[in-house]
Design brief:
The structure holds two protein chains of two kinds. Chain A is an all-beta fold. Chain A has strands at 4-7, 10-13, 19-25, 31-37, 43-50, 56-57, 68-72, 75-80, 89-97, 102-105, 109-113. The mean pLDDT of chain B is 92. The chains are: A mainly beta, B mainly beta. Chains A and B meet through strand 5 and strand 9 of A and strand 6 and strand 11 of B.
Amino acid sequence: SAVISQKPSRDICQRGTSLTIQCQVDSQVTMMFWYRQQPGQSLTLIATANQGSEATYESGFVIDKFPISRPNLTFSTLTVSNMSPEDSSIYLCSVVEGENYGYTFGSGTRLTVV
Amino acid sequence: AQSVTQPDIHITVSEGASLELRCNYSYGATPYLFWYVQSPGQGLQLLLKYFSGDTLVQGIKGFEAEFKRSQSSFNLRKPSVHWSDAAEYFCAVVYNNNDMRFGAGTRLTVKP
């Protein structure tokens, strides 16, 4: 299965600033997903990022707040913009590969906004 | 709307006792079904998945799950729980748009 390197693993940021999270995959994958896991909560899909097209955002998430780049089949970034304490969460990227729907998750970025 | 429900927020079982975690999905077609475990401060680990075929699926760590179409359920079971099984368990579904949706999770506490 794919191996995902997600950076940074954690960060503490000041409110009003932005943080860009990187997701590097060791193989080419078409579909990548970004999730948010708020403290004590489940995972919520932010957006689907397919190479060659604009990211598709879920209800409640907008591009201005969470811009996503997908420049090639092995890399994506998620930016959390103009952060507030409510953005404190774990952010995870995920990829799916193959006909057996092997979903792999990154180790996550634990973000604290102060 | 496509959704997945885990009715139990928190379950406590004694070590050595059997375990069943419930998961129900709502959709016309049968989705692909997954169970993940997340230990505190850790990432997600896939326990098992179901696409088609035999409705009883064996996973890692002694877990199994049974797909029941008539009940739209995919419950996770383990015959004898170990203290190390204490964690958060997530049921997840994938429909034809390939994105994975998660249930709210069930927190498992294991009593000595």
